[in-house]
Amino acid sequence: MIFHFVYALFLTIFLANFNCIDCHERDKHFNRTLFAFHDVKQCAKNEFFDINYFTCVPCQVLGENLQPSIDKFTCACRMSSLSPTVTTIYDTVKTYRTCGNICNNTQTKLGKNVTILTPQYCQAKEETLPKLNCKFKYINRTRTTAAVDFSRSIEMANLNWQYDGQCERCDLQYNFHYQDYCIANGLLRPFLNYNSFWQATTQHFGDLKFVAFFCMALNNNTACHHLANLCVLSFYSFDKNSPCSKFLLSQATDVVYRYGSADEQMSHQQIKPFLYYRKGKDMAKELRETIKDVRFSLDEHDKHHNRLQFFSVSYALDGTLRRWGNLKFGELILCPYLARASTVTQDNFIGFGKKYDVIECDLSLAYILDLAKMYGNQRFMSLFLNYTRKGKEQMLLHSVPILIEDITLENKRPQKEDWQLVKRFQMIEIHPRHGSISSKVSPAYEDEHKLLLYRSLRYVEKIQLHYDIHSDNHISIPVLKLRYRHIEFTNNTTLEMPLKFQFIISNDRISRDTVHAAELVNEIALPLLLLLALIVAFVRARNTRKRRCPSGTNDNEDFCHFAYFTEFLLHLISYMALAFLLCFLLCITINSLTYLTQSTLDFTLPLIRDQRSLELIIYAALVLKLIFVSIYFWRLSHFNIFFIDWERPRCGDTNHFNVKNNLETSSVCSSVRTYISDSNVSAWRSIFLANEWLRLSGKQKTSTLLQCVITYVVVKFFNILAKAEKDITLEIFFVSLIYLAVYVSQYLLKMLLLIRIWGNPLKKYTDHCSLANISVFALVEPSYGYYIHGRSPHGFADSDMTTMLMQLQRETHSISGRRGLLSDTDQCYTIMPPKNLSNYFDKLLLPYQRSFGGGAGTANFQKEVNTVEGSMEKTSIAYTSVNRFFCAFIDHGIKDMDYIIKEKTFVESLFNCEFENYLTDNKGTFYIDNCYSFGEMFLYGNELQIFILQFLLFLAVYLMCNSLLATVIAVYLFNKIVQWIFVGAVMENLSTKTLIDKRFLM
Asked: What value does the mean pLDDT take over residues 226-239?
């Protein structure tokens, strides 16, 4: 016994290593894809043909006293041992089993913990036993003589010793009856959970628990194939109690091998046939690799032309082998006549590298039902690629992965590492209303009666055989992609229902240079971009810190360090998002341009390695950019702003036509008096500028609506998505290219043409400031902001039309005045005021804000008149004080606060920073700004930030839903929401800081 066990173990190890050719690490989990094919005729007398490995294996590997069956596909007990008292002992963990006569004349044991009945007992019983075979085969636990664990051993005997020789009785109180077997209840207990799946599905699965028992407990190969076919019939159900559960655990996942016990791992390893591929990067890598030592040739007369052929193995539902041999492509084509007449099927092989026409046809439900009746759920197929290597005569079989798009959402994605591939499928699956289908001829009913026999149908509506061609004319393992259509029979279902079928043979040409370029971008370009983002974020954060906590000022060091750290993180996530976007665009551009410049333009683009990672990069970039834009725009909408009114009240002079006196009116700074009487200046000018500020806040340089409409129309007009053949990489490349082209064209048209016609809106705003005689002082940081010098060179703005026209005429002929703080400067300045100015401004503004909060709301107008008048008087005094303070500061009238005016250097202008700012507590710097930098406080000046965010949203939505219409709608709605939120926040801020009630803001 020990010798046999050691011999069987040696053969098992030897065959496992011999038969596993080019195995990967996962092959130790019985997930092999490459086999050395042996003919059944080559098997010796003591060998059987293992259909799972396509090789001959000695029966001694499975157990003792076994010999090959008649069909050579399994092993059975030796004929010499057959008698009414034959028994088989099964080990439920290993494949080992023992055959023998339980009434042996010796006292030997058949297996561990199995005791043979004594000869005296057998002799006494055989006198009453029938000489013919019994009606049932009884399956129970083995009998033991000691209290030991015998749960791993099961006995199947032809006699039922428990009932004194009555071998034609099966007591259903203690047993289950299945075919000609009588199985003890205790053995079926672990498999009763399959009843829940059977009750929820059709009657095809009524015997599921018995099939699972014979497969998993008795290691019956035919039963395991039956179980695999039931899994296919359940459409690869992921239910816990489905026939696929054990296959999924042992073949499609690593959970059992990582966390399961040794017994669990051994149990799961033993289940065959191979039905699933293991998901992950290893599988994706194998799909990209080429078949070694085999090259295709476009020359039909080449002797290597027929080296690559397809091989099919088909099974009946009960697990028996129906056919194997070279694939007849007519078996994959449902179209009548085309299956025989197609050029693809002439020689039953594919000329790799050639282009084939698409085979498609229109079918009817009646035709599909006739095919389903003919098939009868009795044809479950597995495909293999049949080839030989150079210099070798050994025939090799490589299983062809089956990608069924409908079983999981991941199978519809382009990322190969997410695919759940299978190794077995069927063309048509029919579900009867009652009972099971049979391939026998049934009585001839009227045609419409066919619809009453079945409740649903599933058939393959599209088959695509796809493979990759590498630059050295090697090919990768083909993938058979299947898309099914499920039809539920209802009262509206008719036999004339039109059904489509399509058969496609496609290929992609893959250049190693392209793959290397994509890897170069992923491995080198992305880290470099992230490093550059880190450096730029550091510089920007340092510059922001100088604006917020300038050197030479008495600031809280802890606060400055915290502000520096937060600014660094904020800029870092912004530039990281930009780096991710550039990396994504580089990858798809390199791959697309490489393939589009090839001589064969009808091949689609291969999927980029780690494309799933690139998609995650886009999603991450969108989130990072959204965080940055949200915080950045929130800051822009909560700035400090004050409108400095230079207008002096027109006291006692009501002659609006006295042009001489009007033009000689001096500035408000020439007087120290405070005017709060009825002769105050009008407020229309401040309201006008505030509304213009709001309008600019929501204005953009380009139109998002026009951007989305043109992109959608161009893509649909040129039918670009159809030309990309639904390859997500090419689609993203073309759509992104068009989106960028439309934006650049729109931007250039706006900047070069429209601004010349209608003018620069920022320049117009500065003109309006001069017209209104109001300057704008805005601080986005305590020591950084913008100043628009709107002081009229004529001294006043509240005048009649005649005076206004004369002012403009004088300014045109340079008769009087200037608009800037200096004679040779413009009106706009980037300012770094003294730190004391910000503190003093806050002190002056505090009572103004208090009075405004108490008297400016709509509800406060319902209070008593005295309260309102008192509040408004305090507000007016506070506002006038702030106005006089700013007027004096601009006119250098405050001894302890002053500023200088200078120009930025080229480097400072290029990087938007300040190196030599001469900033102290009492002295600041005004930088001459000819670029209207105050536009950075509006959406108009942040066009790049908005475009990057919208472009990332465009890519992310398209990658998720693959619908251009939904994408452009999402981008447009997002833009309108951003505008609405930002303008609303700016309106609230203006109302608070400028004493202008929100009812006057539009």
From this structure: 90
